[in-house]
Predict the 3D structure of the following.
Amino acid sequence: MSRQAFVCLYHDLSQPHADCRACIERDDSLKRHDPNGWILCSQSPIFPLLSDPFLPEPEATYRVIFIVHQQPFLQLGKLDGDLRKYFWYSLGVTSLVSIFPPHISNSQILGALDQSHILCHETWSIRSGKLEKPQIAFVNPNAGHLDTSWPEHSPINPDLIRLIHELRLNFNSLLKRARIMMPSLLPVMKLVQESVGKEVGHILQDERLLRNTTIAKEQLTDATQSLTTHKRLNVSVDALVQLNSALAYVLSQSFYGGPPLVQNLALNSSYSLLGTGTAIMAIQKLTEFIIDGFAELPLATVIKNNYRDVTLQHYLVDENSHQNSKTADFYIKGAGRSEQTPKLAYFSTRMGFSEHSYCVTAATQSLASADAARRNLLTLTHELLHSHVKGRV
């Protein structure tokens, strides 16, 4: 970004109380002027708390603070009334944005927020339309425990060695950023890391088994076992390949568009100016809530252990007429908790709503239309059932 870069504000003068937008300009070629002198651009909106927010003149002197906050929407409801006109919110990891005049101090803006949940903030000073050097403050740059341990042994196949090496690099990169700006992601990352360690162990075991197996023509049992092992190995490798891709998406969607802003342009800025970090946290929490429900009420385990007849005709008859006629609700009371495979959530334009071994995706269009039936996030509940059908829970 050049020294001429600035925050440009667009206020739709035809509907002054309905559509207030702010965008970060990066290139003069993006700019065009309307008759009233406002600079317009095609990037996505951030949203004001009030219908008449503070909007400085394009060539005025003012400040902007981009704030990484752990509980932005709870915080917005507690803001002091006099300061609400200076606050905006976004879908990015920099979930709160404050645009305010020079007579308001940084301490007044930051002091209005719950300091214990502020992880980072970046301050821009704009003087006569020109951006001065941004100031970035990480509240606790060493926050969170960083566990970069990994399985000691590696596969023999060189392609698998490269895959696992890249997987480790993506894990570590995501962990380093999450501990500073998204600590809520750390618990599920730890669970995924543990599951991947087990998956790598299965790959090593299957590799060893295939290496030591010789199949004679008349030994059909050995051939069947070999084919089964190959299939199991391919399923494990496919799961790690998909996870590797998912980690790259989670990394970019969570932290691009966050501090330092001039270096981290959001990749999906047509949907969200400052990235989708807050939206990622939302669908991740929804995913974890659903998975935890499956763990507390393990219906798949109950059906596997108690219903041998796949038609269920033998079981789901009138309870008084048959001693085995018990619904799943009868058995699930004493089933106990059954831990599930953790999953990372992210947005995908290509895959839309989908589910894989270690990840689940929501349609990127949900960022703009999650209240529509076609893009409703409740579709995630359907997607998360697929692993139960496939037997990988």
Remarks:
- The two ends are 46 Å apart (CA to CA).
- The chain has three domains: 7-138, 158-255, 277-390.
- The CA atoms of residues 89 and 95 lie 6 Å apart.
- Residues 220-255 form the longest helix (36 residues).
